[in-house]
Write a structure and sequence with these properties.
Subunit structure (chains A, B): Homotetramer.
Shape of chain A: globular
Radius of gyration of chain A: 20 Å
CATH class of the largest domain in chain A: Alpha Beta
InterPro entries (chains A, B): DapB_N, GlycerAld/Erythrose_P_DH, GlycerAld_3-P_DH_AS, GlycerAld_3-P_DH_cat, GlycerAld_3-P_DH_NAD(P)-bd, Glyceraldehyde-3-P_DH_2_arc, NAD(P)-bd_dom_sf
Strand order of the largest sheet of chain A: 4-3-2-1-5-6-8-7
Strand content of chain A: 15-25%
Order of helices and strands of chain A: EHEHEHEHEHEEHEHEEHEEHEHEEEHH
Helix content of chain A: 25-40%
CATH superfamily of the largest domain in chain A: NAD(P)-binding Rossmann-like Domain
CATH architecture of the largest domain in chain A: 3-Layer(aba) Sandwich
Oligomer: homodimer
Protein name (chains A, B): Glyceraldehyde-3-phosphate dehydrogenase
Distance between the termini of chain A: 25 Å
CATH topology of the largest domain in chain A: Rossmann fold
GO molecular function, one term (chains A, B): NAD binding
Largest interface: A-B, 40 and 40 residues
GO cellular component, one term (chains A, B): cytoplasm
Largest sheet of chain A: 8 strands, parallel
Number of helices of chain A: 12
Chain lengths: ~350, ~350
């Protein structure tokens, strides 16, 4: 059993913790919280040992939570640390704590690529995290793009260049202070947005440019993709590629999937934890070929898409399972769509 | 003085009416309203003769508005009719009324292209409406795209193909029943959206594909454009083209234009009627060249962008002014941005 310490039990960390619990080859060593808020109490109720920073111990005690120890105690109790701290805090934690212990650490996409030795996506480069000390699971949008592009190339559809146009959700559901409201915000106004270069930390040779705007939505990101292929391919070959690629879901308008909200409604109806949808939701009706051009729209659930990637990153680091067996195990344990999927 | 009858005094019609009032070569013959609501009362307070449909006369009287006559009386009192009815109602009006009178009619972009002999954009094909009986001013998004592409070609920047990705405003500010709220809706899920073919009703040979999603915004549409040019051009040449093209405004992030809402705030600060912004608002920072590729983002104010186009369409039909003199006269009378603009 791999003992996993989760540093940062927020939007991503709490989901990874629950995903770890669903595995039979790993378990939670503990989770680190900075504030003794309702999320900390949820961690306690889940039975997770709750650690905190040295200067927060008294605060936790006052709030009725007895900390299991400090961050360094958590690192010592873990075989691997998953850092899901807010942007840039992961790097601070590395300098302050992780460098002093000989434990592998997985960072999230909020950190710059050079925080780690390798940027990770299970479909694209599972093997590259093997034995690494520092691994970074790329961010939600980058994960979505990487899955779509890798699905194509794994299935014989060659890519000449990808131009992706992103309508980003402005905030997560719980972020009550973030906007926009009734506005569309270039994010950034310059081209490219960071997503293109970020994809290239994994798919090093892909010709990709991305543009992004933020919109008043908390539910999911939406991508409009224009991809030039290396020749003309039948649309059915592209659809078939998506249909058999794990962690891609084909949403049909005819089946009621007319928008991102309907994808999340489906997740809620399925009883998925927190109404999460870790698959890339490709709108099947949008998949269009036009000579050697491919168009498609897809949704990316920013809160959950990286969760299965973190689970696979753990197995990849320790080399306990090969790529496809890990992906399949993760998907089954998290009850992702497995019907028609080809694992290997 | 050209006497202009406005059929449909809603979002577009009321703006065209005010724009007509600002001209010294045309005047309002009257406006047609179907409901005696607050907009009808605004029309009365503006001093416009208010006409209605035959079966609505009593309703208007009960509401305290004495109609000046019926739609046929309005047609008779006009030299030209601008039909700004809801989608498809323009065509019904044509079949029911306009065909029986020998007066030119201008339709809006909500109607299909074949309602008219020519689709119109002042920059692109001003001369083609000359002497026509039925003219159609294309819709807001189509007008925005047509201006941007025409600005490039008029200034020596050749276009190979245009791929435009649109985050549409979900509703106008007054449309209280329309959505989405907290959702991104493929609009449509199929590719292309109608905008590409609609641009081709004016720029017949342009290779264009468009995709669109609707977002929870009432303020403006946002376009992300990817344009392949016929060779590499310096970015400055593109910026210069936009800078001197009438009805295109370059919004600098450094000057505070960080989003669409800031563009509208500027219009409000300028004291523009209804806070309108009929110019295409190009985010200067987004204009990027990359080999022969051009990227940019721009906002399109759906409520007002077609207003100056309708004024020019009237002059074009009657041949009272050549293209650039009409555009300049319209822009000055409506107090659009004229600094640095080249009219001719």
């Amino acid at each position: 059993m791999i003992r996993v310490g989760i540093v940062g039990y927020g939007t991503i960390g709490k989901r990874i913790a629950d995903a770890v619990v669903a595995q039979d080859d790993m378990k939670i060593a503990g989770v680190l919280k900075v504030s003794p808020d309702y999320e900390a109490k949820v961690a306690v109720s889940r039975g997770f040992p709750v650690y905190t920073l040295p200067d927060r111990v008294e605060k936790f005690k006052k709030a009725g939570i007895e900390p299991a120890g400090t961050i360094e105690d958590l690192i010592k109790a873990s075989d691997v640390v998953v850092d899901a701290s807010p942007e840039d805090v992961g790097r601070e934690n590395k300098e302050k704590y992780y460098q002093r212990y000989d434990k592998p650490v997985i960072f999230q996409g909020g950190e710059e690529a050079d925080v780690a030795e390798v940027s990770f996506n299970a479909l694209a480069n599972y093997e590259e995290a093997r034995g690494k000390r520092y691994v970074r699971v790329v961010s939600c949008n980058t994960t979505g793009i990487t899955r779509v592009l890798t699905s194509l190339t794994l299935n014989g559809v060659g890519i000449k260049k990808a131009r992706i146009f992103i309508a980003r959700r402005g905030a997560d559901p719980k972020e009550h202070k973030k906007g926009p409201i009734n506005d569309v915000v270039p994010n950034p106004a310059t081209v490219p947005s960071h997503h293109g270069p970020d994809v290239q930390t994994i798919l090093r040779n892909v010709d990709i440019v991305t543009m992004a705007v933020a919109v008043p939505v908390t539910i999911m990101h939406m991508h409009m993709a224009y991809i030039e292929l290396d020749s003309a391919y039948p649309k059915d070959q592209v659809i078939e590629a998506f249909a058999k690629t794990p962690r891609i879901f084909l949403a049909d308008v005819g089946a009621g999937f007319q928008s991102l909200a309907q994808v999340i409604e489906y997740a809620r109806d399925l009883g998925r934890p927190r109404g999460d949808f870790p698959e890339v939701a490709v709108f099947r009706d949008s998949v269009t070929t036009h000579g050697n051009e491919l168009y498609l729209m897809y949704g990316v659930h920013q809160e959950s898409i990286v969760v299965p990637e973190n689970i696979d990153a753990i197995r990849s680091i320790f080399g306990t399972l090969p790529k496809w067996r890990s992906i399949e195990k993760t998907d089954k344990s998290l009850k992702l769509t497995t019907e028609g999927k080809r694992y290997g």
